[in-house]
Design a protein that fits this description.
By secondary structure, this protein is of the alpha/beta class. The protein has two domains: 346 residues, TIM Barrel; 61 residues, no CATH class. It has 20 helices and 13 strands. The strands form three sheets. Strands 1-5-6-9-10-11-12-13 form an eight-stranded parallel sheet. A three-stranded antiparallel sheet has the order 3-2-4. Strands 7-8 form a two-stranded antiparallel sheet. The longest helix is centred in the C-terminal third of the chain and has 23 residues. The structure holds zinc ion. Zinc ion binds next to strand 1.
Length: 483
């Protein structure tokens, strides 16, 4: 018998003995420390950061005590606001977060701030029927019978805060599918955006909300139109809202990733026609806040809508690899892997199409070799924890795969997605959930915030400038905690 075969048989015999309890188990020649995850970048922590890390451990313990079996862990609940009094939540409020790189249109705003903007300028339909709960700008010609001013209805009790929350957010979803409710909320609020002044004010408040939550860069997805003029007007309005905020906060930046829908109700060519308008608009609408130094305002392209019920990303390969897209100077930031289907492999398409960042990439864990590629090529993942939870991709955030992406060297950013509908304080709640669910350390948090600038869509010079601003904010934040 050959040596190799003999060894194999002996190994099987030994394993059998151990399994049947006949052999003593031996300790392995590795130390515990070999398996403790290290922070995902080679940076040593300062003495103050070490101190802050020790305090963060205490904060996590205090917050952890709020959750018992059967309580959704670390997700701020609709009715219970005990989390808001924890030290960890204050930490998350004050944390300089860098960029929020994944939010849609004007939804990076809290529910209460959204209401503040529209309450005296919009009406709500309170007559039973298809449009029950739908909201309209006061001058929207399509508003149906039975509409009443929102502010008035709230003041006289015809409409309660709870009812309005249920009309606007996923709070009232109960057993319904998250996406079905989200689609209904999009429809219920679209009538508010027809008034240009309300539209601009909603964006201004969205950006002020970002600044208040410690965000210095908002890269938002904006749905483009098949009509060139409409796309240009939309971008110009958003830019005006951004200028108003930058006036007060010169460090703040807004950049736009234009999107088209993958929804089956549109034919395959529709997305290309829409993104073409975005490409043309990108050369017309620049960030000229500082006229001496114009910068790109539109930085990329994407395709959106619920993946499991839409056209797969691969159907758009021809368009996304066309000369027109390649020569546009716009990068691809692609939604992918936001799916529970065991056949969904859009994380592969996003990679082969050359996406510089992946939106969600929730199911990337199914493809270990591709995970290595994401890590090697530094394809950043925009992780939206609360969105993934509310839209039913994960029933407990402790089981979310993002932690393994982070530990395997993939640049992870934390993002807010659709704050107003998810009823979150955008990004603050997401960080709270992530820090607690994944037991993140100060080093992890620092890496995540830093990733949101390193992997932004800004050119190098602007990235470096923004990084300096963030580093100064971070040092001050850490000194405050440690002090
Ligand atoms: Zn999204």
């Amino acid at each position: 018998m050959k040596n190799k075969q003999l060894k194999k048989i002996l190994a099987i015999l030994c394993a059998t003995l151990i399994l049947t309890g006949c052999g003593a188990s031996k300790t392995r020649e590795t130390s515990r420390e070999d398996f403790i995850p290290v922070i995902p970048y080679s940076e040593t922590l300062s003495a103050d950061e070490e101190k802050a890390d020790a305090l963060l451990k205490e904060m996590k313990q205090e917050a952890d005590a709020l959750y018992t079996f059967g309580t959704p862990y670390a997700v701020p609940e609709w009715s219970d606001d005990a989390y808001a009094d924890t030290k960890l939540y204050s930490f998350c409020r004050m944390l300089p977060k860098g960029g929020d790189l994944h939010g849609h249109d004007d939804t990076m705003i809290s529910y209460t701030r959204f209401i503040d903007v529209i309450r005296d300028r919009a009406e709500i339909c309170l007559e039973e029927g298809d449009q029950y709960g739908y909201m309209y700008a006061y001058d929207n010609p399509d508003k149906p019978e039975g509409c009443v001013p929102i502010g008035e209805a709230l003041d006289n009790g015809t409409l309660t805060e709870e009812e309005l929350t249920a009309f606007l957010t996923l709070a009232g979803k109960e057993d319904q599918r998250g996406w079905d409710v989200l689609h209904a909320r999009f429809a219920a609020t679209s009538g508010v955006h027809t008034n240009e002044e309300i539209y601009k004010d909603l964006y201004e408040e969205t950006f002020r909300n970002c600044v208040d939550n410690g965000v210095i860069l908002a890269e938002l997805r904006v749905l483009a139109s098949p009509d060139d003029d409409v796309t240009v007007q939309r971008l110009t309005n958003i830019r005006e809202a951004y200028y108003r905020v930058r006036q007060d906060h010169p460090e703040f930046r807004v950049r736009v990733i234009c999107t088209a829908s993958k929804n089956l109700k549109y034919d395959e060519d529709q997305a290309g026609l829409i993104l073409d308008t975005a490409i043309r608009a990108s050369s017309l609408v620049k960030d000229e806040f500082d006229p001496a130094k114009p910068e790109e305002f539109v930085i990329g392209l994407d395709l959106v809508s619920e993946e499991d019920t839409s056209r797969p990303l691969k159907e758009y390969t021809e368009y996304l690899t066309s000369e027109e897209v390649k020569n546009s100077g716009l990068k691809l930031f692609l939604h992918c892997g936001e799916s529970l289907l065991n056949t969904n492999d859009t994380v592969i398409d996003a990679y082969t199409l050359g996406a510089v960042r992946a939106g969600h990439a929730f199911n990337l864990y199914r493809y270990p070799e591709l995970m290595e590629k994401y890590a090697e090529d530094k394809v950043a993942i925009e992780v939206c924890p609360i969105s993934n939870y509310r839209l039913d991709y994960v029933s407990d955030l402790r089981l979310h795969p993002a932690l393994s992406y982070l530990r395997n060297g993939i640049p992870v950013c934390i993002c807010s997605d659709d704050g107003v509908y998810l009823s979150t304080e955008p990004l603050v709640d997401d960080f709270y959930a992530a820090i607690l669910s994944w037991d993140l350390s100060i080093g992890d948090i620092k890496a995540i915030c830093r990733n949101s600038i390193t992997y932004s869509g800004l050119p190098k010079e602007e990235t470096d400038e923004l990084m300096k601003t963030w580093e100064a904010q971070w040092d001050e934040f850490i000194a405050d905690i440690a002090g």
